[in-house]
Specification:
Elements lengths: L1 E4 L7 H9 L3 E4 L17 E4 L7 H9 L4 E4 L9 H7 L2 E3 L6 H16 L2 H9 L17 E5 L3 H12 L3 E5 L5 H5 L3 E2 L2 H7 L2 E4 L13 H6 L5 E4 L8 H9 L5 E4 L21 H6 L5 E3 L8 H20 L6 E3 L9
Helix pairs in contact: 1-12, 4-6
Amino acid sequence: MGVVAYGVTADERPLLERALGKEYDLRCLDLVLNRDTAATAEGRRVVCSSVNDVLDKEVLRILADGGTEFVTQRATGYNNIDLAAARALGLTVARVSWYSPYAVAEFAWALALAVNRRIPRAVARTRDFDFRLDGLMGRDFHGRTAGILGTGKIGTAFARIAAGFGMRLLGYDVTPSDGCRALGVKYVERDRLFAESDLLSLHAPLMPDTHHIVDAPALALMKDDAILINTSRGGLVDAHALVENLLAGRLLGVGLDVYEEEVGVFFFDKSLEVMTDDTLARLMTFGNVLVTSHQGYFSQDAVGQIVETTARNIADYLAGRTSDNTLVPSGAGETGR
C-alpha cells in the first residue's frame, strides 16, 4: 500500500522509515503539501501530513481524485485541514492527539532562560572574544510570577518546572486542571493574568476564541519588563501589535517558536532570499527577541511518539477502527469527486 509523507526532516526520516518502510510502500518528501505539490500524492492511498501543510478544499480534492483515502497528520493541531471538505470527499482524517508534553514545555523554558539571561547575545560576543558583561544582566525567576495561558498537558508540565524555580503560579483556562491546582496554580481572569505575570507562556490551541488572544489591549496590560513566550501557535499573538510594543521599549524579552505567517518560511533555508515578511524581519532585529522555527516538539522522545502514533493510525484505518486520534471517520460523508 502506498504511503507518502510530506514535510519530512532529515532527523525524522529514519524514524518514519523504521516504523513504516518495511510494511508499506513509503515515500518521504521534504516538500510542503499544497496546491502546487498535491499531485505528487497520486496513487498513494495514505498521506502523512505535517503541521505546515495546506489541506484546504482544493488540495483535498486533488488528493481524493488521485486515489488518497486517508490523511494522518503528524501533529496535534489540525487547523490547517478543512475537515468539512474532507468529510464531503469521503476522506478519513486522523492526527496525533498526544505526545510528550515535556518536549514543548522544556523548550519554552529554554527560550525563557535564554531571553532572560541574554544568552544569544552573550554567545555572539564571546565568539568575537568580547567578554564584557554590559547589557547581559538578567533576573532571578525565583519569587516572580509565572502566568500560564492554557493549562493542558503542556501547560501543566511548564507549571511543574516553574514550581521548581520557586515561582508564584497563575493560570487561565476555560477548563482548569486539577494537576495544576495541585502544583499551586491559582486560576485568575485573563486580564489579571496579563497584568501580573513576570513571565507569560502560551500553551493554548488556536481556535476562533484564542486567535490574537495576545493583542494590543492584552499587551498594554502586561508589565513593561515582562517576558512573553509562545511555543503553541503563531496566531495566538498579534505580531504587528507586538512589534509596536517592542518599538516603544516595552517587554524585557520575547521568545517565539511559532509565527502566524510561518507557512512557507519555517523549515526552509531562506538565507539567500529577500525576506518579504516585514513583520518577521522587524522582529528579528530586536536584541531581546529570540525566534526559532517551530522546533519545540522536536525531541527524540516526542518525534518517536508521533511516528509511532502515525503508524498506529494507519493500522487502525486499515482495520476499520477509530480512536481518540480520529477527526473524520471512514464513511463520514459522500464522495464528491
